[in-house]
Automatic annotation (TrEMBL):
The protein, known as: UDP-glucose 6-dehydrogenase
Family: Belongs to the UDP-glucose/GDP-mannose dehydrogenase family.
Organism from which the protein derives: Funiculus sociatus GB2-A5
E.C. number(s) listed in UniProt: 1.1.1.22
Enzymatic reactions: UDP-alpha-D-glucose + 2 NAD(+) + H2O = UDP-alpha-D-glucuronate + 2 NADH + 3 H(+)
Protein's pathway: Nucleotide-sugar biosynthesis; UDP-alpha-D-glucuronate biosynthesis; UDP-alpha-D-glucuronate from UDP-alpha-D-glucose: step 1/1
Positions of the UDP-glucose/GDP-mannose dehydrogenase C-terminal domain: 346-448
NCBIfam families given in the database record: NDP-sugDHase
Pfam family, one: UDPG_MGDP_dh
Keyword flag NAD: yes
Gene3D superfamilies on file: Cytochrome c1, transmembrane anchor, C-terminal, NAD(P)-binding Rossmann-like Domain
Domain of life per record: Bacteria
UniProt entry keywords in alphabetical sequence: NAD, Oxidoreductase
Amino acid sequence: MRVCVIGTGYVGLVTGASLAHIGHHVICVDNNEEKVKLMKAGQSPIYEPGLSDIMQSASSSGNLEFTTDLGAGVAHGEILFIAVGTPPLPTGESDTRYVEAVARGIGSHLDNSYKVIVNKSTVPIGSGDWVRMIVLDGVSERQKSLVAAGDVGVEEKFGEFTAQFDVVSNPEFLREGSAVYDTFNPDRIVLGSTNPKAIAMMQELYAPIVERKVAEDQSLPPVPVVVTDINSAEMIKYAANAFLATKISFINEVANICDRVGADVTQVAKGIGLDSRIGNKFLQAGIGWGGSCFPKDVSALIHTAEDYGYDAQLMKAAVTVNQRQRLIALEKLQQVLKILKGKTVGLLGLTFKPDTDDMRDAPALMLIEQLNRLGAKVKAFDPIVSSTGMRHGLTGVFVETDPERLADGCDALVLVTDWQQFRNLDFAKMAKLMNNPVMIDGRNFLDRKEVENAGFQYVGVGR
């Protein structure tokens, strides 16, 4: 099928490259010329395992193209994905101006052929009709501009013209760091529309994925496809992220109680996770959640509830617990070191989670800010940040090039991001380089006995 993906952030680029990889002809559109040049050269502008490989393979086969020309993309695609960002506003609601601009742009380039316009961006509930309205506004504005320009053939061009399109909600459930894997091995695919033709085209698009032809385990049964109305599809996305965020905040609250009564939250999580009604995922206690999805989506859902006269108290509590949890590492440093002023603290990891270069709402940022406020010197090592030299938004921290340089002269280390390579550090060598070998394991990720045998004082969360 012919596909156009507008926006090449995490969701757009992974979606476009993956659909091209399974045989569709995809044109990805972005208004950033430098970014498009980079992608045309086969390079990914983001760090995501496996993405560069499928980009290069799909580009070589001719299935994946990149352009800044929205008109060319709209003309090409039977299915048009809107995959631009919807960042949070100070109020908590989503900023939909980029979605609006794209929808208006699509309308200004529509022809007489039928199109399926897919909301892949996470948009406020009820955006399906809104996007349709904006697309039609784009059609109308093009007609008016042609008339104003004196195009004598405009009535002939548009006299019989009727925009033929349907809007479908197709929310993404990708995890940064495993987005390519998640695309080919989804738990479910959600399609929101009441038009059978649009649903049929989306099912054809996803057929190779649904039938597990590109799955890691091709013997599994077909991927469940949930077909619903647009509003419910949009709510599914928000509800899923709000539930997962609440589950993490719950186990963090349990961890804080465990610290006070002498229980071990890792054992508690194992015990409750074996209950099939609960499950063991997202029960890892630590210093809280961050990133581009959970904070934004939970806040947006709270804001939507308020717009319709409901006080979402449980979700507000999940956010409050998470904000407090980010300071747990700071409290533990104060318990061990007492006064932090004049001390040097090293952070293992900066990104909000492993296998990504994303620093959006990373817990490390608040920790750096608070350590600076208390007069501590802050150093950090992160496998991606240190190797790429990216420093955007990072102030008050000196980024080291390897773990040993990080440990040198530190009074304590805090594991902030659970990168897999942090399990295999030379802890004995690092301990000898430190002024005071203390390890605050902010993710309960390390082997406690191994770290203690290497000479560290180990402090976990809820342990």
